[in-house]
Design a protein that fits this description.
Blueprint: H1 12-19, H2 32-40, H3 42-45, E1 64-68, H4 74-82, E2 87-91, H5 95-107, E3 113-116, H6 120-127, E4 133-139, H7 157-166, E5 167-177, H8 180-190, E6 196-198, H9 214-221, E7 227-233
Parallel strand pairs: 1-2, 1-4, 2-3, 4-5
Antiparallel strand pairs: 5-7, 6-7
Helix pairs in contact: 2-5
């Protein structure tokens, strides 16, 4: 499949996303350790904005997995440690979470993680070649529960099309949320897509590769039901 940016044309979803982003850069207090990690480790693990292919940020050629919005990084660090045969790209704009992840992967000696502190659409559209992703994982994205904010939700038809261009045939898209209305929204956006096949009915049990996260535990304490969706790129 040829992607719009490869054809030298503007990406309609990217243009829309410049006006309506799925995230807000909320200020967060950095601990001294997180600040030090950003100063000392981010230059080591960050994907340079001008890098044409994120795969070139790694020393070894392995299947490429992206986690979009990794929060405090606990799931990403766990997955990278338990799946050393894969390269992981983590995308997150929240500085304290990035700082915590950097400390974690440095202390664990993980060499299969790289970080992008930018808009996921910009990274996917500009630095991830078509068909180069083995998997995309999106865990507990902001549900933007108010109706007037639904346009900010990450999972939209245009974003799904972008993921379909970047994930290779047979690759996986895994999503999880603790907000049932958002789970239904995800289904409404994904089911019409000819590019993805639902492997659940419509949901799946949490796969072994997804650890329980802080946001999941918080949702369970509130009585929220956890929903996992798993799709295969057709």
């Amino acid at each position: 499949m040829t992607d719009a940016t490869d054809r030298g044309q503007s990406d309609p979803y990217e243009s829309h996303h410049r006006r309506v982003r799925s995230f807000v850069r909320r200020p967060g207090r950095l601990t001294p350790a997180q600040q030090r990690a950003l100063e000392e480790l981010l230059p080591v693990f960050e994907i340079a904005p001008d890098l044409a292919d994120v795969a070139d940020a790694f020393d070894r050629d392995r299947p490429l997995v992206v986690e979009i919005g990794f929060g405090n990084g606990e799931a990403l660090a766990w997955m990278a440690a338990h799946e050393p045969d894969k390269n992981f790209i983590g995308i997150e704009v929240h500085e304290p979470g990035v700082g915590r992840l950097l400390r974690d992967i440095h202390e664990k000696g993980l060499d299969n993680v790289r970080v992008a502190m930018r808009d996921a659409v910009e990274v996917l559209a500009g630095q991830v070649p078509a068909g180069s992703l083995s998997e995309a994982r999106i865990y507990f994205p902001d549900p933007w529960p108010k109706k007037r904010h639904h346009k900010r939700r990450l999972v939209q038809a245009g974003f799904i099309d972008l993921l379909a261009e970047r994930i290779r045939p047979g690759g996986l898209l895994h999503l999880a949320t603790d907000w049932q209305p958002y789970a239904e929204w995800m289904l409404e956006q994904l089911e019409p897509s000819p590019h993805f096949e639902n492997l659940g009915n419509p949901f799946v049990e949490p796969p072994a590769w997804r650890p329980q996260t802080h946001f999941e535990r918080r949702g369970e304490r509130k009585g929220h039901e956890i929903a996992d969706l798993l799709y295969r790129r057709a």
